[in-house]
Amino acid sequence: VLALRHVVRRPSLAALPILVLLATAAFSSFALLVMTSLDRGQVEASWRAVGADYRIEAAEGRTLKDVDPMKVPGVDAFASAYELPSAQMRLELGRVVRVDFVAIDAAAYETVAGAPVKPSWPAELLDDRVAAGTPEDPIPAVLSSGLPAGIERIPIGGRVKLRLGDNFWSFRIVAIRPEFPGVVDGGPFL
């Protein structure tokens, strides 16, 4: 500010280096702000896409039963998940909707996906009790807010059934979210 005041009061060629320094400082500040914003955006986007620092996926038709991530140097925590794209979700009136199904260990996932994308699960998902998945004892679930057009909104507390293999499992909706870390395509999910 003092240098700019000096340039305004005494315009001369001697003030030209001060103007160059001021312009350089302003441009540097702007560039730093833009780079920081881009870096944060990239980190957040990768966390939303992957759901953690790293993601290990099995090839189609294979499992990861023999893989122990805790044996990898530098691994502090991991969370298991099962993903079934385009699963059949049956609504109460018998209508069928395709959703991406993701089953997770919510407590472990809370540890892994701490920052910058903290999922903040409903208490029902962090409960140690394992629900049977029957109509009398449904599994707590988070449902996508982006269901296909023409589907009536399913409220919290609503129930749905999902076909896994030859069986239908019952779920009770405990939260509705627009996105889920690790589910990148933005389609409907449970």
Summarize this, please?
It is built from 4 helices and 5 strands. A 5-stranded mixed beta sheet has the order 2-1-4-5-3.
Question: How would you describe the overall organization of this protein?
Answer:
By secondary structure, this protein is an alpha+beta fold. The chain has helices spanning 2-9, 16-50, 106-112, 123-126, and strands at residues 81-90, 96-104, 139-144, 159-164, 167-177. It has a five-stranded mixed beta sheet. The longest helix is centred in the first third of the chain and has 35 residues, at 16-50. The radius of gyration is 26 Å and the shape is elongated.
Provide the descriptors you would attach to this structure in a database record.
190 residues, alpha+beta, elongated, 5-stranded mixed beta sheet
